[in-house]
Amino acid sequence: MTASRVRITVTGAAGNIGYGMLFRIAAGALLGHGTEIELRLLEIPPAIPAANGTAMELVDGAYPLLRDVVVTGAPHVAFDGADIALLVGAMPRTAGMDRADLLAANADIFTVQGRAINDHAADGVKVLVVGNPANTNAAIARAAAPDRPGDAFHAMMRLDHNRALGQLALRAGVSAGEIERLAVWGNHSSTQVPDIDHATIGGLPVRERIGDDAWLDGEFTRVVANRGAEIIAARGASSAASAASAAIDHVHDWWLGTPGDGWTTIARPSQGEYGVPEGLVFGMPARARDGEWRIVEGLEWSDRVRGLIAATTADLEHERDAVRARGIPA
Ligand code: NAX
């Protein structure tokens, strides 16, 4: 896609992922070096001073592509004319809050933001939800934006995809760039299903190249699905830089296309592909061309993968039903 100037809205701009992402966006990592950028940074009132500090640093970076930075607490200002919206800010789980409370608190945020996108964003806006629970938050935002095409609302599963690539690359002693045709199905949660059955390393099937099915079907899947918790335990802070990098990868490919015949993982509202209930924002393999994603269809699931996919589907249905039980469309 080409456009000489693109307006990008980032919510939660004062947070850790925001800080990991904004300078790379300003430097051209998102849309390439021929596209000027306007940034709209949305924050809640207590975090506006910190977002202003980030905006000052963006100015101090003297990025040639960066034409404008606006910090605001008003969704209608933040999303006005947005071509790309990165919904990073979310309500974190606090002491005493159960999962249903967390879902409901975030449902309010993503309903307001979905509505503001519906009413104010540019035609063709592309929305990536990063804030957790990302898949269900994306479904909520989409439901609040009935005038926009459903497939404009994605949730980020590129970090899960990249984590799986990273583990395979380490194990095989290759670059992540040599691995193709990987997919991560389902929810961005511990039920996600990294699927290597179609994947290749340097053109060879992964199972053949690695030669250790027990590791691939056990430890590999566990490490990828629980990597976020492992990083919090190691750093004492969540995985902000790799999450920012994955969000940039997702939107970069949406805008500029996936390279060659390769595919990656996105989560967008199911249109019934692979029998997944319509509307669930579900991780699937996809290719991007000319600003549109096409799901890679026709892949066969092993019995093992099929069983795991049933579980991640039930996980997402459970989240959706918990939100709907509070009267919130999702
Ligand atoms: P931080 O707590 O550092 O930052 C979140 C920011 O969002 C804060 O500055 C807060 O003021 C702001 N915020 C809260 N409500 C808002 C609202 N209604 N409008 C605008 N801003 C709002 O969290 P960070 O580490 O940046 O993570 C952000 C989100 O990403 C979390 O929900 C986190 O769970 C999620 N993640 C999602 C990942 C994925 O793969 N989908 C991986 C990384 C990350 O865990």
- CATH superfamily descriptor of the largest domain: Lactate dehydrogenase/glycoside hydrolase, family 4, C-terminal
Low-confidence spans = none
Mean pLDDT across the residues is 96
Structural class designation: alpha/beta
**Under the CATH scheme, which architecture of the largest domain would be assigned?**
Alpha-Beta Complex
Structural domain count: 2
What string, H for helix and E for strand, traces the elements in order? EHEHEHEHEHEHEEEEEHHHHHEEEH
* Topology, number of strands: 14
**Per CATH, what is the topology of the largest domain?**
L-2-Hydroxyisocaproate Dehydrogenase, Chain A, domain 2
Structure explained in plain terms:
The model has no long low-confidence stretch (mean pLDDT 96). This protein has helices spanning 16-26, 48-60, 75-78, 99-120, 134-143, 158-172, 206-210, 213-217, 219-225, 227-235, 240-256, 303-325, and strands spanning 5-11, 36-42, 66-72, 84-87, 126-129, 153-155, 179-180, 183-185, 193-195, 200-201, 204-205, 264-269, 281-289, 292-295. The longest helix is centred in the C-terminal third of the chain and has 23 residues, at 303-325. The protein has two domains: 5-155, NAD(P)-binding Rossmann-like Domain (Rossmann fold); 158-318, Lactate dehydrogenase/glycoside hydrolase, family 4, C-terminal (L-2-Hydroxyisocaproate Dehydrogenase, Chain A, domain 2, Alpha-Beta Complex). Helix 4 packs across helix 5. The protein is 43% helix and 19% strand. With 330 residues, it is an alpha/beta fold. It is built from twelve helices and 14 strands. The strands form four sheets. A six-stranded parallel β-sheet has the order 3-2-1-4-5-6, with helices on both faces. Ligand NAX binds next to helix 1 and helix 11.
